[in-house]
Please model this.
Amino acid sequence: MGFKCGIVGLPNVGKSTLFNALTQTAAAQAANYPFCTIEPNVGEVAVPDERLAALATIAGSAEIIPTRLTFVDIAGLVRGASQGEGLGNQFLANIREVDAIAHVVRCFEDGDVTHVEGRIDPIADIETIETELMLADLDSLEKRVPSLEKRVRGADKEAKETLALVERSLAYLREGKPARLVERKPEEERTFRLLGLLTSKPVLYVCNVEESAADKGNAYSARVFERAAKEGAKAVVVSAKIESEIALLPPEEQAEYLASVGLTEPGLNRVIRAGYELLGLVTFFTAGPKEARAWTLNQGAKAPQAAGVIHTDFEKGFIRAETIAYADYVALEGEAGARDAGKLRLEGKDYVVADGDVLHFRFAN
Model:
């Protein structure tokens, strides 16, 4: 479905190391799962989901196909990017194309790795990037106001609604607050999205810590988590150095290495899952002898839209969705058991798909 999470950060925070680890992980997955590197700075990775293996075992599936998330390595930002400094214009253009931002923040000390600002302060780093994005948004919105005001004078109702959102967003930005914090009604969401504001995108803070803090974080990452909680963002702890080493190991050696550093799973799994949650996505499954497959869907989407994820013809000719909750599918050992127990439901066009649903679509050709 093309969901993209852009990886941003100041120079020398571990952004590229993290992206390289992601793409190496994805390359390792390629033996079993579909994978493609679209461009040198774009890679798709499987979303870790233990439920898929359980479904495949029960259904006797010959193949397992996880759902995927795209990560984009965006050029490093420097102060003044909103005015075109460094790769500023390219940076801002790339951010406009992603659905969410994974902001890598340096939360480690290392005298051999210089910091672009000459000090270790993750909150100041966050504010540097956020300020540049807010300045770009301010410039973008202020340029639109005269045209919108002219249309409003001509009794353009749509322009009036848009101008109200623009003015509300400008008020937040001028106070140093990102546009994602702007209060808005559900019916305003579409118009708000069309404004294309950089600071309206959901943010995941990725705290890059030293190896010894990879499991629980450190004092620096604690400050980032505190900030994330206040602004409704998400945060995860990861050691990019450890992740880059894990990604190069064969699967049978990875668990042993993880245990040796006090981890139960790669930190990248947390990054991928958090990015998935950040985008407001859910997973539904299809399972049979040929394959067990995970599919991505927007939270709140209905059954015909889920059918359309598989094939547009399924959505056009949608009749019903045979639906089994994941827990029921596992507990009753598959479709036959669920049907016998009355746990297989026939859902219509208004059914909102729940995370974990195992679906089979009936459609007219």
About this structure: The chain is about 45% helix and 20% strand. Confidence is low (pLDDT under 50) at residues 28-38. Residues 210 and 328 are 42 Å apart (CA to CA). The first strand starts at residue 4 and ends at 8.
